Amino acid sequence: MTPILEAVGASHAVRGREILSDISLRLHPGETLGLIGPNGSGKSTLMGLMAGLLRPSRGEIRLEGRPMARLGRRQIARRLALVAQSAETAERITVRDAVELGRTPWLGPLRPWGAQDDDAVAAALDAVDMAHMAGRDWASLSGGERQRVHIARAHAQAPRILLLDEPTNHLDIHHQIAILDLVARLSVTTVIALHDLHHALRCERVMVLRAGRCVALGPPMEILTPALIREIFAVEAEIIPHPRGGRPVFAFQRLA
Ligand SMILES: Nc1ncnc2c1ncn2[C@@H]1O[C@H](COP(=O)(O)OP(=O)(O)OP(=O)(O)O)[C@@H](O)[C@H]1O
């Protein structure tokens, strides 16, 4: 089966220095892949490559089997939505305006705004618990509210692939869990860069990056061993069973 999104030996170089090296990955339709790794390990760079915003210096990214480099922005945006880290939006727009931008790839001279677009925007605002703020100025929102609006914009885009770069940044614990539950409910393929290893446990697979290279890829309970966590993050981790049968929890201690 053709992977929905694929990286084939993809690297990215800036001014001749490789900051991401030789990444190969085949995403299966509907799966959620967590990207983890220390600061500066290449997670956002890989997101940028997979979103078609950055070009690989070597290798290739393929979207539904077709080289990303041969697809136009609109073709990509109908299939894939990115919520970048600290994404900004032009000032003087309302929350609803910001979410409506997600419908852009679907509109055109022969396809004006219609009831289905209103429905998509309303459903997206609802999904992130922002419907009551639809009329608010974007500029007046808190960091977490902005993050939720960005996710609503991506949701309204109705993508098959959702790329989320640290989507729980800025969110309180209630909304962190709400966003992860939302992502789990959506029947889209998701790549999600995360720092919280507890959140990574919710993914079907995780890719661990270090210094621009993939060092592990697989189901989180197989990959996130104390030995790997020590090696990658320089912390001692103990894995503690959940008292009521839920996902285990980590206890961390910095290596002396
Ligand atoms: N345009 C650029 N020019 C020079 N260096 C860059 C550029 N973009 C990224 N880098 C460097 O490449 C490395 C990977 O950056 P990237 O943002 O992908 O890491 P990350 O894993 O997302 O980090 P974080 O967890 O801190 O968000 C970092 O060392 C970064 O400084």
Automatic annotation (TrEMBL):
Keywords on record: ATP-binding, Nucleotide-binding, Transport
GO MF term set: ATP binding; ATP hydrolysis activity
Domain ABC transporter residues, every copy: 5-236
A Pfam family the protein falls into: ABC_tran
InterPro entries membership: AAA+_ATPase (IPR003593), ABC_transporter-like_ATP-bd (IPR003439), P-loop_NTPase (IPR027417)
Signal sequence residues: none
SMART domains: AAA
Gene3D superfamilies (UniProt xref): P-loop containing nucleotide triphosphate hydrolases (3.40.50.300)
SUPFAM superfamilies found in the cross-reference section: P-loop containing nucleoside triphosphate hydrolases
Family note: Belongs to the ABC transporter superfamily.
Name of the protein in its database record: Iron complex transport system ATP-binding protein
